[in-house]
Amino acid sequence: MSDALDARLIEKVREMPDFPKPGLVFRDITPIITDPALFREVIDTLADRFAVRPPDLICGVEARGYIFGAALAYRMGLGFLPIRWEGKLPPDRLSADFELEYGFDAMEVHGASLVGGRTVVIVDDLLGTGKTLSQCCDLVAKAGGRVQAIAVVVEVESLRGREQLEGHDLVTLSKLAE
Questions:
Q1: What is the dihedral of CA 28, 8, 167, 84, to 10 degrees?
Q2: d(CA 143, CA 95)
Q3: Which pLDDT belongs to residue 148?
Q4: What are the structural domain ranges in the chain?
Q5: pLDDT at 107 > cutoff 90
Q6: How confident is the model at residue 100 (pLDDT cuts 50, 70, 90)?
Q7: Which residue has the higher pLDDT, 158 or 98?
Q8: How far apart, in Å, do the first and last CA atoms of the chain sit?
């Protein structure tokens, strides 16, 4: 991806210390999505990246992955499937528990009837420790799908999330070094 896009994205990310819990740093991407030209460039760049070999479906990770994932699916003429936190999807769902930096949680995806046999690109706003995205890959596989790639707008390199995703094609538009 371009160095110019990387620099503009990093400039827009706001850091919020001690949110949502003391000791954590929340990275707010709202300034990226409120800048129409930058938001469009993010979506167009991702669409160009997957144009040669489009997936069957785009999956977005709750909540901010929905923003980029749904826009990417629309831009590419593909369907969109949400990966949600536990308890928010109707029946015919698969679930997996995992540990977060600030506790335990579970994510869910609609079952094999919607995913089975399809290739997907999983989209999220930010790659931190990689635990959430790794769990999402497991859920897609459990539903009978195949993860073609994972796409994130910002990667926080110091959290080493890339290590959790070894073996997956990882597309990042910008890297926050810190």
A1: 30
A2: 10
A3: 98
A4: 3-176
A5: no
A6: low
A7: 158
A8: 20
Of 61, 57, 77, give the one whose Cα is nearest residue 127: 61
Question: What percentage of residues in the chain have a pLDDT greater than 70?
Answer: 94
Between CA 140 and CA 120 the distance in angstroms is: 8
Pick the CATH number of 3-176 from 1.10.10.410, 3.30.230.70, 3.40.50.2020, 1.10.510.10: 3.40.50.2020
Q: 157: which strand partners?
A: none
By the 10 Å C-beta count (0-12 exposed, 13-18 middle, 19+ buried), 123 is classed as buried
Query: Diameter of the chain by CA atoms?
Result: 44
Q: In the structure encoding, which two tokens stand for residue 62, read together? A: 């709750």
pLDDT at 166: 95
